[in-house]
Design goal:
The protein is of the alpha/beta class. It contains 15 helices and eleven strands. Bound molecules: NADP nicotinamide-adenine-dinucleotide phosphate. NADP nicotinamide-adenine-dinucleotide phosphate (NAP) binds next to α1, β2, α5 and α9.
């Protein structure tokens, strides 16, 4: 049962999604009670958030901070450290709703814990579904948890599917801005800098997802996310480049009718939709300005320049542990690129090589049969791919 006022925990509150979520929370004091916040190591910002929102619990998962951050400075909030504290926060019995806004595979722990405790899970962390989609969704069913997407494209599709017969849907269309390198050739991408790759034209996001948007790996991860979340075949998922980032998703019905969700590129809307679901209320998100809007453009993605996209389809088709492998290889490569230790085009190269190695070594696995592998298998695949990626990148 969900109480009238939703008791919310935000995992990853110091990040881009976390900070946007707090703006939404501040707007709805009568509907949302913030009871817990968690981050990895940004103690200063977490402390400021605790001062402003007075949650009951705060968590820093980086254990080494225990020595340096005095718990009493967070008083009256209770400050805890470590991953076990994060798990406990996600499973706290008085909590109704958990927003998982942690970046990367690290988000799986919070998502899994919240699902096992039967919470409503507002899931911004797409990596959890890329790693463990079928397993996580099956566990959600078993534990009566509800997963609500926060990713703007998936929120759009989720909204568009409300009240529709899934059998009448022929395709879903995910839009992509194209990132900072839309229209460039592969040769032009050889020597792009970190600053250029971080300069996203329409969205202001954390560094990892911004680089993923520049390689289009973000869209590859979203294809896999959509495949599991909406239980559609990879062939039913189409990606269209849409530089204005106003149309976030479209649903094509079998009679040819197409429905779209439009709003300015502002994550506060999909966050609010998930936090207040199914209610809609005036919130802090920007509105479309029809007096200035003139045109919306669409074009097919350039698969030769952005090979990551094809990897997304392959992994969505293959299933099994390949999502964990792709995600881990990508996380390591993005980290290297951000540190100036590899080139931009090495990111899709390392991912391609490691996914190929994985697929050649292991037989094809059933795409949606979660009973053939376990969470431990996923974590082992993640570790294996990280080691391989380090080896590849140090060559
Ligand atoms: N940003 C967007 O607009 C957007 C849109 C759609 C989907 N998403 C998805 O939302 C997720 C978050 O993205 P973001 O852009 O908000 O990332 P971000 O700005 O880099 O923030 C990441 C957050 O996760 C926390 N964190 C990282 N590792 C952690 C760990 N091991 N334990 C606990 N907390 C940890 C960080 O804490 P510290 O600050 O202490 O390191 C920070 O609060 C990603 O999965 C992304 O794909 C983001």
């Amino acid at each position: 049962m969900v109480s009238q006022k939703r008791r919310l925990v935000i995992l990853g509150s110091t990040g881009s999604i976390g900070r946007n979520a707090l703006e939404v929370v501040a707007k709805f004091p009568e509907r949302i009670e913030l009871v817990g916040l968690a981050a990895r190591r940004n103690a200063r910002l977490l402390w400021e958030q605790v001062r402003q929102f007075a949650p009951r619990w705060a968590v820093l998962t980086d254990e080494t901070l225990r020595e340096h951050v005095p718990a009493e400075t967070f008083h009256p909030a209770e400050l805890r450290f470590g991953e076990s504290a994060l798990r406990e926060l996600a499973q706290e019995p008085s909590v109704d709703l958990v927003l998982v806004a942690i970046v990367g595979a690290a988000g799986l722990l919070g998502a899994w814990s919240a699902v096992e405790a039967g919470k409503i899970v507002a899931l911004a962390n797409k990596e959890a579904l890329v790693l463990a989609g079928p397993l996580l969704l099956r566990r959600a069913q078993e534990c009566h948890a509800q997963i609500l997407p926060v990713d703007s494209e998936h929120s759009a599709i989720f909204q568009l599917l409300q009240g529709r017969n899934p059998e009448e849907v022929s395709r879903i269309i995910l839009t992509a801005s194209g990132g900072p390198f839309r229209g460039k050739t592969r040769a032009e991408l050889e020597n792009v800098t970190v600053a250029q790759a971080l300069n996203h034209p329409t969205w202001h996001m954390g560094p990892k997802i911004t680089i993923d948007s520049a390689t289009l790996m973000n869209k590859a991860l979203e294809i896999i996310e959509a495949r599991w979340l909406f239980n559609v075949a990879p062939e039913q998922i189409l990606v269209q480049i849409h530089p204005e980032s106003i149309v976030h998703g479209l649903v094509e019905m079998r009679d040819g009718a197409v429905f779209a969700q439009l709003s300015p590129p502002d994550m506060r809307l999909p966050i609010q939709y998930a936090l207040l679901y199914p209610q809609r209320c005036p919130g802090p998100a920007q509105r479309l300005d029809w007096s200035t809007l003139r045109a919306l453009h669409f074009e097919p993605p350039d698969l030769a320049t952005f090979p990551a996209l094809e990897l997304g389809y392959e992994v969505a088709r293959h299933g099994g542990l390949s999502g964990a492998v792709l995600n881990a290889a990508n996380e390591v490569a993005v980290e290297y690129f951000l540190q100036g230790r590899c080139r931009f085009l090495d990111i899709p190269r390392v991912c391609r090589d490691i996914v190929n190695t994985y697929m050649q070594q292991r037989p094809l696995q059933p795409t949606s049969d979660a009973s053939t592998y376990t969470l431990e298998d996923i974590l082992a695949a993640d570790r294996w791919a990280r080691q391989e990626a380090h080896r590849w990148l140090k060559r």
